[in-house]
Amino acid sequence: MLQAAMVGIAGVLLALQIKAVKPEFSVYLSIATSVFLLLLAAEKLEVVVESVKLIQSSISIQSTYIQALLKIIGITYIAEFAADICRDAGYGAIAGQIGVFSKLSILAVSMPIITALLETIRGFLGT
Question: How far apart are CA 15 and CA 17, in angstroms?
Fold first, then answer.
């Protein structure tokens, strides 16, 4: 975490210095810093995936549910990353549309889980 914080702070300070001279390069530096931080986060995500697989092997959970969970996590990270870059560049409307699209994507990915939950509830109710 300390490494990510230092990279982020250094990127912001450099971007602020460059912004006074060449504002467009400031956006590029911001994107480069964000991509580097995303790659650092991807390394940590591997630990999360391994932990989820361990949990799956410990208790019987269908792999489709785990896959959906991992897809939802991925959609969330990618959407937040893209929306933040758009906001940083001054395109808030595009960032908002990315947010809407990500929510719809998460809903689409989670539909099999919702359907299975409703079927389970129906089974408990005996209808």
Answer: 5
